[in-house]
Amino acid sequence: MCGIVGYIGHRQAAEVILHGLSQVEYRGYDSAGMAVSDGRGMRIIKDVGKLRDIHAKHNFLSLEGGIGLGHTRWSTHGPPCERNAHPHYDCSKKVAVVHNGIIENSRALKAELEKKGHKFTSDTDTEIVAHLIEEELKGKKSSSDSILSAVRSSISRLEGAYALGILVSGEPRLFLARRHAPLIIGKGKKEEMFFASDMAALLGYTRDFVLLNEGDLAALDAKGMQIWSADGSPAVRSPLHVDWTPQMAQKMGHDYFMLKEILEQPLTLAAAVSADVADGVKLLAGAKRPAVVACGTSYYAGLVLQYLLHRQKRTASAYLGSEYASWHTGAEDVVVAISQSGETADTLSAVRLAKKEGAKVLAITNVVGSTLSREADATLYISVGPEVGVVATKTFTGQLAVIYKLAYSLSSNKKGLEELAAMPSQVQQMLDEVHEPVHHLAKLMSKRKNFFFISRGIGWPCALEAALKLKEITYLHAEAYAAGELKHGPISMLEDKVPVIAIAPSGALAPKMESNMRECHARGASIIVLSDDKTILSEGEHSLAMPKVSEDFVPLFYILPLQLLAYYMTIELGRDPDQPRNLAKSVTVE
Ligand code: M6R
After folding, report:
1. pTM of the model
2. Ligand 1 residue neighbourhood (C-beta within 6 Å)
3. Mean pLDDT of 88-116
4. pLDDT tens-digit profile of 379-400?
């Protein structure tokens, strides 16, 4: 969602911040800005639009000084425009604040501050933080102690979620605070410190991080940091070194990150299948009522886990993170939370509710040190490296790989584990075979407006994910149905040439799938079939031959050509697959 970067040290802060923000552009944003201080005074540049355009117009690098913070904003309170862009400041323009999250009591605080004469210039909830600090400082002699105490008491009044960076003119420290929103500190090699909402922003400078706990407040100077926990007592947080390199977040010669991330899946799958799942097996082995919570693509991976556990006669229910509060029974003893970012607010709130009721939490995530990994009792990492494209591709197959390993280890399914280990090379072979045919198909399909994806059994989550991929980046209408459901309503929408994309592997469900495809064909639909069976393939107007895989692996295998299809259709339509409109990489609001 929004990105935050802060710097204090011997370099020009604006340079570091501009680079850092450009590394998290993929999270999606509509405006950006930064505040830089040279130790005496502070200047701010902010505007609506993309970083490079704002830079071309205002020149961020004209902000001189070694202390600063910047932000890319994804609007929540008020439309995208210059005055709503961060940093926000107080009446005297001496306090600059950047913020991710939502301050829930902002209305009440704003009314209180307005009564005291504060004038607000934006529609945001963030601006109140700058005015609160200004109000706290009123009548006090400005000193490091008075500024720290003003920051602390202002933050104590906030309700809701925040990752905050605060710069006070003339003050040689940066302040940061977090609650229900990610914020990390980066340690430079010599006399420089960083902070950011996302490690990817800082990988060009450091791979040594310190993770703040919920409710922490920190002050950074060039030499180090001071941290206080929520109760105000001094705290020490353990350091973390990550292996991710800045190169992992490069396009490596591809036009878009999405294509790079689709094509590198044989490699990322190899990393994911070697995950150590022992802690997960331990937790699930004793579980009587396991549940799965996740959102979006991760939820579809969760449906696959639900399916595999059911096959082992373990009753597990998969819930959307945002719906868990309405459906939970309180009897769930282990909750498996799946989230590539580990920061999804809906998933985290489900986790917190489950924990309150005594459940143990098993996280499956890509991000070491993410909020989810830190709140969980055990974490399984999918280790697929940074995913820069906004839509999930390699993280989905990475989640599936870890899910298969977890489920098969739980049931000591040796054959399944062997098949899983062979997946990366099989996937490579399949990608090589389908790439060109899919590219060709995309050219034909990009002229159509509505799409249906159908499958049965474990193929159904794959149909859901394929439809989500297509609509996210092409902005075309796509729906997924369990194939048997079509006749219960949606079949009325089929008319001449509407594409119905059928995920139809051979096996026990194939005869029913074939009937469903014929039902669609009879209504004039154009059938595009993916199958490993020649007879089934012959049912389609267009067909894509797939290699034969065990039924369990259908979602992992069949999603790859469908990711490619969505990608190439988006290119045909002249749209940006890496940064689709209205979407953000991690959704940190409920
Ligand atoms: O970071 P998470 O896996 O928790 O994210 C969940 C969803 O927001 C995410 O999968 C979303 O649906 C993506 N746009 C999928 O491409």
Report:
1. 0.75
2. 295-298, 339-341, 344, 347, 391-392, 472, 583, 586-587
3. 94
4. 999 989 889 888 999 999 999 9
